């Protein structure tokens, strides 16, 4: 028999043979079912490493399956490029390159059943977590957490302090997992952030609630950044206790002039639209040029707002509050009147006008100790005399 003659059978036949073995068939019985000799089946089995690791299925769609590895092997046999193979199985070509390099046999051949066995063996984690097994390590991590160290700081400290002792080193992810699993005692207060469970991450996953037809901040006129002419506003919401109430905040970028938006009926998109239209109607048209907001769902009807107020509305990048720095600073000042955790529904429209008046008549260093009201009045006077 020529060398590797047992590999001349179709891939589908081999696949069925290994499926039968995983179902509990003996080698001879599986060989009879697929129509090959027992010795041929035995050669297949030996070529796959002489073992079949139990496969519970991929833990995530990003992992390669047995079928993916068979497709890779068939593509290599057909002399296809790695990029073509990756496209056919819906993976990145980098993943396929790593797969071939990592799971090829010692002689350089890529055998899909061997490769799948190797991947399953690496996936198994029979060892006990270091933090669970090592009392000194666990005590040291607890001590650093009590001192308000972050898991990253603890991990770096362990590498510096115990350079040759793997048993006294852990990565930040291990500390997080142990903390959220309860291996480090009671969870509340263990992290500086106060979090007691992991925050969900959506890396690379498009957000289903993205606001339609947003104009990104990058398209806002550059002159707005120079703060030379007024009429460019930043806006946001201050949320009350239990997210049961809210107040809208507007601040003009040049004069730091503040307007507070009363939202007695809530702050969903229709209520927000109506409140902004009604409560900014008295602002002179020349001072209603741009409005910068975050990507909150309350601005879903931004096109209506722009059409009825004259504002050109621009949206910040996600999780980028510094792009509305003036508004964020103003919200911090407003917390003197609206403490976090308080019920904001108690404040009437009259209350909000009084609070805005106090803030607008407070001298600001950035304005040369003038008040926002004085700065705004100066601009309005200059505009009317031109």
Automatic annotation (TrEMBL):
<keyword id="KW-0233">DNA recombination</keyword>
<dbReference type="Pfam" id="PF00665">
    <property type="entry name" value="rve"/>
</dbReference>
<dbReference type="InterPro" id="IPR012337">
    <property type="entry name" value="RNaseH-like_sf"/>
</dbReference>
<dbReference type="GO" id="GO:0004803">
    <property type="term" value="F:transposase activity"/>
</dbReference>
<dbReference type="InterPro" id="IPR053392">
    <property type="entry name" value="Transposase_IS30-like"/>
</dbReference>
<dbReference type="GO" id="GO:0005829">
    <property type="term" value="C:cytosol"/>
</dbReference>
<comment type="function">
    <text>Required for the transposition of the insertion element.</text>
</comment>
<dbReference type="InterPro" id="IPR036397">
    <property type="entry name" value="RNaseH_sf"/>
</dbReference>
<dbReference type="InterPro" id="IPR001584">
    <property type="entry name" value="Integrase_cat-core"/>
</dbReference>
<dbReference type="GO" id="GO:0015074">
    <property type="term" value="P:DNA integration"/>
</dbReference>
<comment type="similarity">
    <text>Belongs to the transposase IS30 family.</text>
</comment>
<feature type="domain" description="Integrase catalytic">
    <location>
        <begin position="217"/>
        <end position="380"/>
    </location>
</feature>
<keyword id="KW-0238">DNA-binding</keyword>
<dbReference type="InterPro" id="IPR025246">
    <property type="entry name" value="IS30-like_HTH"/>
</dbReference>
<protein>
    <submittedName>
        <fullName>IS30 family transposase</fullName>
    </submittedName>
</protein>
<dbReference type="InterPro" id="IPR051917">
    <property type="entry name" value="Transposase-Integrase"/>
</dbReference>
<keyword id="KW-0815">Transposition</keyword>
<dbReference type="InterPro" id="IPR001598">
    <property type="entry name" value="Transposase_IS30_CS"/>
</dbReference>
<dbReference type="Pfam" id="PF13936">
    <property type="entry name" value="HTH_38"/>
</dbReference>
<dbReference type="GO" id="GO:0006313">
    <property type="term" value="P:DNA transposition"/>
</dbReference>
<dbReference type="GO" id="GO:0003677">
    <property type="term" value="F:DNA binding"/>
</dbReference>
């Amino acid at each position: 028999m020529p060398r590797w003659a047992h590999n001349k059978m179709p891939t589908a036949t081999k696949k069925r043979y290994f499926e039968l073995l995983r179902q509990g068939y003996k080698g001879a019985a599986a060989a009879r079912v697929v129509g090959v000799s027992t010795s041929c089946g035995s050669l297949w089995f030996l070529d796959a490493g002489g073992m079949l690791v139990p496969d519970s299925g991929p833990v995530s769609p990003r992992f390669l399956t047995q079928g993916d590895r068979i497709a890779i092997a068939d593509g290599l046999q057909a002399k296809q490029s790695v990029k073509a193979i990756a496209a056919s199985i819906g993976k990145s070509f980098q993943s396929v390159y790593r797969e071939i390099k990592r799971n090829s046999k010692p002689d350089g051949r890529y055998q899909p059943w061997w490769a799948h066995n190797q991947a399953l063996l690496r996936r198994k984690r029979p060892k006990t977590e270091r933090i669970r097994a090592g009392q000194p390590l666990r005590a040291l991590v607890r001590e650093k957490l009590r001192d308000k160290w972050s898991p990253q700081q603890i991990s770096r400290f362990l590498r510096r302090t115990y350079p040759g002792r793997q048993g006294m080193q852990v990565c930040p992810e291990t500390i997080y997992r142990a903390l959220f699993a309860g291996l480090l005692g009671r969870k509340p207060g263990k992290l500086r952030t106060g979090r007691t469970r992991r925050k969900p991450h959506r890396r690379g996953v498009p957000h289903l609630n993205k606001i339609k037809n947003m104009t990104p901040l990058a398209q806002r006129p550059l002159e707005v950044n120079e703060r030379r002419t007024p009429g460019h506003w930043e806006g946001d919401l201050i949320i009350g206790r239990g997210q049961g109430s809210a107040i809208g905040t507007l601040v003009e970028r040049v004069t730091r002039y503040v307007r507070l938006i009363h939202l007695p009926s809530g702050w969903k998109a229709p209520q927000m639209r109506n409140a902004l239209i009604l409560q900014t109607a008295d602002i002179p048209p020349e001072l209603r040029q741009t409005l910068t907001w975050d990507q909150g769902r309350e601005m879903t009807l931004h096109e209506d707002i722009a059409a009825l107020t004259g504002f050109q509305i621009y949206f910040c990048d996600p999780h980028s509050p510094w792009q509305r720095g003036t508004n964020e600073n103003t919200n911090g000042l407003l917390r003197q009147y609206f403490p976090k955790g308080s019920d904001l529904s108690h404040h009437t429209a009259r209350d909000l006008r009084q609070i805005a008046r106090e803030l607008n008549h407070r001298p600001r260093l950035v304005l040369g100790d003038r008040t926002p009201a004085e700065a705004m009045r100066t601009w309005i006077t200059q505009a009317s005399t031109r």
